[in-house]
Amino acid sequence: MLEKLPDVIGHALHGVRAGLDEVVFNTLGLREGMASIALTSLAFADHAPLPARYTADGEGLSPPLQWTGLPGGAASLVLLVEDADSPTPHPLVHAIVVGLPAEDGALAEGALPSADHEGTGLHVGRNSYLQAAWLPPDPPPGHGVHRYAFQIYALRTVPVFSDSPGRDELIDALRAHAMASGLLIGTCERPDGSIRIEEDVPAGPVIAG
Q1: Confidence (pTM)
Q2: Is 94 exposed, middle or buried (0-12, 13-18, 19+ CB in 10 A)?
């Protein structure tokens, strides 16, 4: 995956980023007149680094999440996770979950399926690698800090989604039915992996025996 990219590519693409303004939470006017949902995690604070166990450098589990403050009239919830700093025209999708109960609740660690983890049977959509799974954060070496936007939305209805809905299908449903939203940012950075090799300097004279 992206950790195998040469550092020179990460440096060359340092200024190429989708941008936080491009995540769904900040587009399409979804927040205008909408209620706010408090989205938090026991594993990391807002705008703080994600622990390695939730990234491609660790077990690759989906992190635990909690939410409170749903408005009356909500019928279902959806979760979307995007990388605002991916070197792509649009943010990279790391997770989509639809059909969550419309109540204050939580997702446990590893609730989403991922490599070597089955998850807990949620209705999971397609990430940007076209997998119905959690895509662990995996920024290119030397590309800088990546911001992962964990977004939750309350919908007025329970839309009928396809078996593995993608970003576009989710956006269409949000345009039509979203009534509240919440945002939590976790960060991840893979430093420049270049290793400086220094010449060996003998500690003292070598005596032939």
Answers
A1: 0.84
A2: buried
**Which ranges of the chain have pLDDT less than 50?**
1-14, 194-209
| Cβ proximity of 188 and 148 under 8 Å | yes
Class of residue 195 by CB neighbours under 10 A (exposed 0-12, middle 13-18, buried 19+): exposed
Neighbours of 122 (CB within 10 A): 18
* Whole-number Cα distances in Å, 178 to 22, 65, 72, 77, 82: 18, 20, 13, 9, 18
Pairing of strands 178-188, 35-36: parallel
Q: Is 89 exposed, middle or buried (0-12, 13-18, 19+ CB in 10 A)?
A: exposed
